[in-house]
Specification:
Helix content: under 10%
Distance between the termini: 37 Å
Number of strands: 11
Largest sheet: 7 strands, mixed
Shape: globular
Length: 124
Protein backbone atom coordinates (compact mmCIF):
# COMPACT_ATOMS: atom_id res chain seq x y z
CA UNK A 1 0.00 0.00 0.00
CA UNK A 2 1.25 3.46 -0.89
CA UNK A 3 -0.03 6.58 0.81
CA UNK A 4 0.09 10.11 -0.59
CA UNK A 5 -0.82 12.96 1.73
CA UNK A 6 -1.71 16.43 0.51
CA UNK A 7 -3.56 19.57 1.51
CA UNK A 8 -1.18 21.21 3.93
CA UNK A 9 -0.47 24.91 3.88
CA UNK A 10 -0.26 28.16 5.80
CA UNK A 11 -3.34 29.53 7.55
CA UNK A 12 -4.10 32.07 10.24
CA UNK A 13 -5.36 31.16 13.68
CA UNK A 14 -8.99 30.12 13.44
CA UNK A 15 -8.68 29.04 9.85
CA UNK A 16 -9.38 25.67 8.27
CA UNK A 17 -7.59 23.12 6.13
CA UNK A 18 -8.54 19.73 4.76
CA UNK A 19 -5.85 17.11 4.44
CA UNK A 20 -6.24 14.17 2.09
CA UNK A 21 -4.47 10.83 2.04
CA UNK A 22 -4.85 8.78 -1.13
CA UNK A 23 -4.10 5.09 -0.76
CA UNK A 24 -3.17 2.79 -3.59
CA UNK A 25 -2.45 -0.89 -3.70
CA UNK A 26 -4.22 -4.12 -3.14
CA UNK A 27 -6.77 -4.10 -0.33
CA UNK A 28 -6.01 -0.49 0.54
CA UNK A 29 -9.63 0.09 1.56
CA UNK A 30 -9.45 -2.66 4.18
CA UNK A 31 -6.87 -0.84 6.30
CA UNK A 32 -7.60 1.27 9.32
CA UNK A 33 -6.25 4.73 8.57
CA UNK A 34 -4.99 7.51 10.77
CA UNK A 35 -3.19 10.80 11.04
CA UNK A 36 -0.17 11.64 13.15
CA UNK A 37 1.77 14.86 13.44
CA UNK A 38 5.23 15.94 14.41
CA UNK A 39 6.06 19.46 15.53
CA UNK A 40 9.64 20.78 15.46
CA UNK A 41 11.67 19.30 18.30
CA UNK A 42 8.86 17.02 19.39
CA UNK A 43 8.01 13.38 18.96
CA UNK A 44 5.45 12.23 16.44
CA UNK A 45 2.02 12.00 18.06
CA UNK A 46 -1.34 10.45 17.33
CA UNK A 47 -4.07 12.77 16.00
CA UNK A 48 -6.98 10.68 14.73
CA UNK A 49 -7.89 7.26 13.41
CA UNK A 50 -10.80 5.76 11.48
CA UNK A 51 -11.53 2.10 11.03
CA UNK A 52 -11.73 0.55 7.59
CA UNK A 53 -15.52 0.52 7.59
CA UNK A 54 -15.63 4.19 8.48
CA UNK A 55 -17.98 3.94 11.45
CA UNK A 56 -15.50 4.26 14.31
CA UNK A 57 -13.22 7.21 14.97
CA UNK A 58 -10.93 8.34 17.76
CA UNK A 59 -9.15 11.62 18.36
CA UNK A 60 -6.48 12.94 20.64
CA UNK A 61 -7.98 15.25 23.25
CA UNK A 62 -6.41 18.42 21.89
CA UNK A 63 -8.25 18.19 18.56
CA UNK A 64 -11.65 16.88 19.67
CA UNK A 65 -14.44 19.11 18.44
CA UNK A 66 -12.14 20.81 15.90
CA UNK A 67 -10.89 18.02 13.64
CA UNK A 68 -12.93 15.40 11.79
CA UNK A 69 -11.53 12.29 10.15
CA UNK A 70 -13.50 10.60 7.39
CA UNK A 71 -12.92 8.26 4.49
CA UNK A 72 -14.28 7.50 1.04
CA UNK A 73 -13.47 3.89 0.26
CA UNK A 74 -14.68 4.26 -3.32
CA UNK A 75 -11.80 6.72 -3.77
CA UNK A 76 -9.43 5.01 -1.31
CA UNK A 77 -8.99 8.36 0.36
CA UNK A 78 -8.99 9.48 3.98
CA UNK A 79 -9.57 13.09 4.97
CA UNK A 80 -8.77 15.21 7.98
CA UNK A 81 -10.92 18.32 8.19
CA UNK A 82 -9.21 20.77 10.54
CA UNK A 83 -11.20 23.74 11.81
CA UNK A 84 -10.44 26.44 14.38
CA UNK A 85 -6.75 25.89 13.86
CA UNK A 86 -4.32 27.05 16.51
CA UNK A 87 -0.59 27.80 16.34
CA UNK A 88 0.04 24.66 18.39
CA UNK A 89 -1.40 22.61 15.51
CA UNK A 90 1.64 23.56 13.45
CA UNK A 91 3.40 20.36 12.46
CA UNK A 92 4.13 17.96 9.66
CA UNK A 93 1.11 15.71 9.33
CA UNK A 94 1.51 12.08 8.30
CA UNK A 95 -1.11 9.54 7.30
CA UNK A 96 -0.70 5.90 8.17
CA UNK A 97 -2.37 2.59 7.50
CA UNK A 98 -2.46 -0.51 9.66
CA UNK A 99 -4.50 -3.65 10.25
CA UNK A 100 -4.48 -3.25 14.03
CA UNK A 101 -7.86 -2.13 15.38
CA UNK A 102 -8.56 1.56 15.61
CA UNK A 103 -8.52 2.68 19.23
CA UNK A 104 -7.85 5.80 21.29
CA UNK A 105 -4.21 6.85 21.01
CA UNK A 106 -3.53 4.47 18.11
CA UNK A 107 0.11 3.42 18.56
CA UNK A 108 2.53 4.60 15.90
CA UNK A 109 5.15 1.92 16.58
CA UNK A 110 5.05 -0.83 14.01
CA UNK A 111 2.62 0.94 11.68
CA UNK A 112 2.29 -1.01 8.44
CA UNK A 113 2.51 1.96 6.07
CA UNK A 114 3.35 5.65 6.27
CA UNK A 115 2.83 8.42 3.80
CA UNK A 116 5.18 11.34 3.29
CA UNK A 117 4.23 14.26 5.46
CA UNK A 118 2.45 17.45 4.57
CA UNK A 119 3.31 20.68 6.37
CA UNK A 120 0.62 22.58 8.25
CA UNK A 121 1.57 26.00 9.58
CA UNK A 122 -0.80 28.11 11.64
CA UNK A 123 0.25 31.70 12.17
CA UNK A 124 -0.83 33.69 15.20
Amino acid sequence: VQLQASGGGLVHTGGSLRLSCAASGRSASTYNMGWFRQAPGKEREFVAVINWVGDTTYYTDSVKGRFTISRDNAKNTVYLQMNSLKPEDTAVYYCAADKRPARPSWPLDGMDYWGKGTQVTVSS
